[in-house]
Amino acid sequence: MRLARVLAALTALLSGGAQAGEEGRLLFFGDVMLGREVAREVAMRHLSPWSQMTLPRADFAMANFEGAIGPPEGCRDAGSAPCFAVAPEMPGHLAAAGFTAAGLANNHADDLGGDGRAATKHALRQAGVAPLDFADSPGFVRIGRRVVAVVAINRVVSRRGEIDPLPSLAAERKLRLARALADWVVVFVHWGAELKDWPQDSQRRDAAWAIAHGADAVFGHHPHVVAEPECLDGRPVFFSLGNHVFDQKYPETKRGMGADCRLRDGALSCRPLRTATPANTAFPRLADEHPDDNAIAACAVPAGPGLEVAGRRLRPWGEPGRLMSGPTVLAGEAEGKPVWRMAGRPLLAAEAGVLEPGGRPMLVTVERHPSPIDGEDGPRPYVYDVTDHGLVARWRGSALAWPLIDARLLPGGETMRLCALHRADSFIRLDPASTATRTAVYRWNGFGFAAVKDEEAVAACRRMYGETP
């Protein structure tokens, strides 16, 4: 018995502490700022900001990267707002500590303008850390046989005066794609009010909206102080993870939190991982647990149903533990194993539906492609047969009757119709700046789509996009 216990303990140690039924571990931390006094301390001590702590072994670790790579003189004028210019070698410390991804959906990503944002992405990638902002969301990461999607959102006005609006069709579509292709969907959001250690009404509204549209967990940052997590609608919401590495001096800003998430027995659960930064340093250390830390871990979320078409589970494919964004490489799986992979596609949406009477389900996607018909690079509907050898295109869509914004399948009936949201201008007189929209319903005719004048379907389509029938 003693030998068995020793062997079990050794196995757990070598596996990073995994327990029976555990499929993976993910870590999410708050604000990391590697400029100003943090950079000075690194230079003076010749040490990494993580020299006083070791991240737990995990399959994936992500933090919010506050700032931009480049010289301080490149700071954009924004009055009294601080500018976080970071030297290009600093992301190497992030990678060495064990971080594999960094969020750039925050109000400081544009501190050095567009060139600074591009330099930041380049420096992070060179260091082996995958950057993720709203434009590149969702990102997908494979953890064993599971897939977790991450959608990064910024709700704080940046130096360019921009914000990622909620509710919005853009955010809804990203969550919809993430929900279709992943087992779990995580929202990594920059929000709230600085130095407020309780959830703001706006945060609760945003969290409720994200959960209603497919989010399984929400991890927030920006206030620079910790706000305790809650279980909302059966989903863990960490309202503020606080500072992880920062040079602020207030005692409250010296306490941080990570979301330590486990995939176990087909469910995701998270609990706080506390950190504390001593006075006169910006280097954090692991801290003692809080008595209530186990409570949020009971807020476990089962895996989503995923997207299955013609007996194949469709999932994004990529290197295990690496966050993949950009063109989505789809794999068709049977019994949990990939049987084929396709070239990357600029996917915006994906769902399955029966389009032909008596037919089997087909894959319907919305993809971003240029078209010679309207001369624009925009969303296009695609239809694929899913076979034992991969995807076979049945329709490589034009923008139908008007430039397309989005399209979704309408449920009901023997076959499904396509509900399309169009920009209101037409091919005859294009106006890309147009904000007016119109909806239309189409049926599949075997080689393309034809307009439908069914009043009930048209009314359902309008409701789907929030228009008054």
Which keywords apply here?
globular, disordered N terminus, Purple Acid Phosphatase, chain A, domain 2, 6-stranded mixed β-sheet, 469 residues, alpha/beta
3D shape: globular
Task: Calculate the terminal CA-CA distance, rounded to whole Å.
Answer: 71 Å
What fraction of the residues are assigned to beta strands by DSSP?
35-45%
Low-pLDDT residue spans: 1-19
User: Biggest sheet: strands, sense, closure?
Assistant: 9 strands, mixed
What's the mean pLDDT score?
A: 91
What is the annotated CATH architecture of the largest domain?
A: 4-Layer Sandwich
Number of strands: 31
Q: What share of residues is helical? A: 10-25%
Radius of gyration: 24 Å
Q: In the CATH hierarchy, what is the class of the largest domain?
A: Alpha Beta
Number of H/I helices: 8
| CATH fold-level name of the largest domain | Purple Acid Phosphatase, chain A, domain 2
How many domains? The number is 2
**What structural class do the secondary elements suggest?**
alpha/beta
Helices, strands, pairings?
Layout (H helix, E strand, L loop, with lengths): L1 H13 L7 E11 L3 H10 L14 E6 L2 E2 L15 E2 L4 H7 L3 E3 L9 H15 L2 E3 L6 E5 L2 E9 L14 H13 L2 E7 L10 H12 L4 E5 L4 E2 L2 E3 L2 E4 L1 E2 L1 E3 L9 E10 L2 E10 L8 E2 L6 H5 L3 E2 L4 E3 L2 E5 L13 E5 L2 E5 L5 E7 L8 E9 L6 E11 L2 E7 L7 E7 L6 E7 L13 E8 L4 E4 L2 H10 L5
Parallel strand pairs: 1-2, 1-15, 2-5, 3-4, 5-6, 8-9, 9-10, 10-13
Antiparallel strand pairs: 1-16, 7-8, 11-14, 12-13, 16-17, 17-18, 17-19, 20-21, 21-22, 22-23, 24-25, 25-26, 26-27, 28-29, 29-30, 30-31
